[in-house]
């Protein structure tokens, strides 16, 4: 018996990632905008300010292109370049992360399964369909279409209502500390942080569980309720390790 009555997942960089040829996509954006190319994708990503803004992805990318253009001494319209990048991107070009399908199967064996994404349905629907997630989960909440997104509690409350479960019995798995972990805690969920690197630490956040791969989900769910013990589990150990650094 699993310690959780239900499991829910973030979508981007938790269950799936883009499967584009990023270099080709980058060049096509310059062609679409009729701008001579400069820089490389690996130079652009660090210049973006935090997670994408679901309400203004063009402005979000445009700010990064503006910084990159300044570094290369180029006078261009960064918003036009960002709009071109968005125009040539294919949201259906996604692939599951390693262990995602096994994690979804293990979650389904434990109880209802949900997906909660901060993106709006008109952007995320293509990913859901490409992955066949409709057949694998019981509810999907698109927080980008709600008045408030993660880390606010409202999207999580919508999800528990759709799954007919209690928040404190639900595990939420996501890759973002400030959106997924913080939001899960605000809503009374248990949280599992999928970190990008074993060297990453939770800092001021305290996820209940820290994962290096979705391949760890079946083992986590297989542990009985007595394994929880009312403690913060892996999150507490990770926080202590960070304090010792």
Kindly state the mean pLDDT as a whole number? 89
Would you identify the CATH H-level superfamily of the largest domain? HAD superfamily/HAD-like
CATH domain fold name of the largest domain: Rossmann fold
What is the C-alpha radius of gyration, as a whole number of Å? 19 Å
Oligomerization status of the protein chains: single chain
Structural class: alpha/beta
Features:
HAD-like_sf; alpha/beta; 10 helices; 245 residues; disordered C terminus; Rossmann fold; six-stranded parallel β-sheet; hydrolase activity
Write up this protein.
- The protein has two domains: 163 residues, HAD superfamily/HAD-like (Rossmann fold), CATH 3.40.50.1000; 68 residues.
- Strand 6, helix 8 and strand 7 form a beta-alpha-beta unit.
- The chain has 245 residues and is α/β, with parallel strands linked by helices.
- Helix 1 packs across helix 4 and helix 3 crosses helix 4.
- Strands 5-4-1-6-7-8 form a six-stranded parallel sheet. A two-stranded antiparallel ribbon has the order 2-3.
Give me a quick take on this structure.
The protein contains ten helices and eight strands. By secondary structure, it is α/β, with parallel strands linked by helices.
Question: What is the topological layout?
Answer:
Blueprint (H helix, E strand, L loop, with lengths): L5 E4 L6 E3 L3 H12 L7 H4 L12 H15 L6 H11 L5 E3 L3 H11 L2 E5 L3 H11 L7 E4 L11 H10 L6 E5 L2 H11 L2 E5 L14 E3 L5 H6 L10 H12 L1
Parallel strand pairs: 1-4, 1-6, 4-5, 6-7, 7-8
Antiparallel strand pairs: 2-3
